[in-house]
Amino acid sequence: MKHMRVIFNEELNQVADDLDHMAHRVHTAIEGAGQALLHQDIDAAQQVIDGDLEIDALETSIINQCVQLLAKQGPVATDLRVVVSTLRLASTFERMGDLARHVAEIARRTYPQPALPAEITNIFVRMQAFVSNVSEQLITMLSSKDEALIERIITGDDQLDDIHRQIFTIINSDAWTGSKQQTIDTVLLGRFYERFGDHAVSAARRVGYIVSGFDPTKEPQNMHSAHEDTVLG
Amino acid sequence: MKHMRVIFNEELNQVADDLDHMAHRVHTAIEGAGQALLHQDIDAAQQVIDGDLEIDALETSIINQCVQLLAKQGPVATDLRVVVSTLRLASTFERMGDLARHVAEIARRTYPQPALPAEITNIFVRMQAFVSNVSEQLITMLSSKDEALIERIITGDDQLDDIHRQIFTIINSDAWTGSKQQTIDTVLLGRFYERFGDHAVSAARRVGYIVSGFDPTKEPQNMHSAHEDTVLG
């Protein structure tokens, strides 16, 4: 009969594999969402929308596995932090999948027209490059748990917020040619990208908690100023 | 020396009290946010913004207590579900507090002018009444764990989505007098209210999980159609 510790490690490896798989799916989803939004690619949009069901199913499976691990193994110390963080990371990734889907849904609805007026496209090219990169960093971070990378993901989000703020400046400028519907969509799309970045920060903090045992979910001063920026036009 | 079970129950009661306190704070926050938005009440806005730090601190405290309970007591069955759900409910309430703060921040920024043009105010009066009511239902649900109430919260969210959709119709109509900044703010505010409702549904599902042992986090068909509605102009 296998030692409990061996069983625990096997089960923990399984759930870690599923979480890694989920992070890959989120990365694929945000790449597809960008392709749909920036190149009016209806097939890419549909794939992201359909694929979100798999991301949702992975969340449910991972949470169930974590609850089973807690029930059967009663882990403590680092093992416990791994299980609790995995459970929370699964929910974060699920939301990131939703946000990629929301972007794809807007691209699908406006197809074959682009959702965005030309004067704002470059801003979204930059936000897309940012979130695509950060979603790749999350995959690396999950396996390496490298503290410098965790820190880079957390502090790097300011750049996305800076780009996001420019959306409001452009809409409010005379250069804006968008219809009311395009204004609505641009505001929503900007919010989705900004939230995607926020969730990447949450994910980094949750991995940071595994490493340090300290839950860095809140840095009230920074969090608040970042959030205020969100709603400043 | 106290029996482990007695200690466990005492600690569980403590964290349940904190969660109840958090739900009350969220209800107060959304009431204050509505007062700020609909009556240009700058003091109410500031209270919501300042008060969010306490909600954030409650989340951190509750999560720490839950991890301690898992480490020291290794709960199983219903006890385990209570702890896992409490941990997840704390994060849901924290987000609801953030959303109330976002509403208050917009009201503070546009003060003494209302953020909303007159033709959309009635929609927000109705959304405010809805979220104020649902945040009160969450408090009742936490203590009663009444399954009929849980179900009512989950299914009732469609009404909020219906009201939310009307925002886009009004902005796109000739009746809309809002400036571009007001259009931006209206879209963001609508999104914040809609998300507040989504989080109330999440909270209800998490309490449902305690009661039934089944995690009803996903109803893919409903979730997806609801989300598509979100982005339909």
Automatic annotation (TrEMBL), chains A, B:
Ranges of residues in domain PhoU: 20-106, 125-207
SUPFAM superfamilies xrefs: PhoU-like
GO cellular component, one term: cytoplasm
Keywords annotated in UniProt: Cytoplasm, Phosphate transport, Transport
InterPro entries: PhoU, PhoU-like_sf, PhoU_dom
Domain of life per record: Bacteria
GO biological process, one term: negative regulation of phosphate metabolic process
Subunit structure: Homodimer.
NCBIfam families: phoU_full (TIGR02135)
Assigned protein family: Belongs to the PhoU family.
PANTHER family xrefs: PHOSPHATE-SPECIFIC TRANSPORT SYSTEM ACCESSORY PROTEIN PHOU
Record function comment: Plays a role in the regulation of phosphate uptake.
UniProt protein name: Phosphate-specific transport system accessory protein PhoU
Organism: Galliscardovia ingluviei
UniProt lineage: Bacteria, Bacillati, Actinomycetota, Actinomycetes, Bifidobacteriales
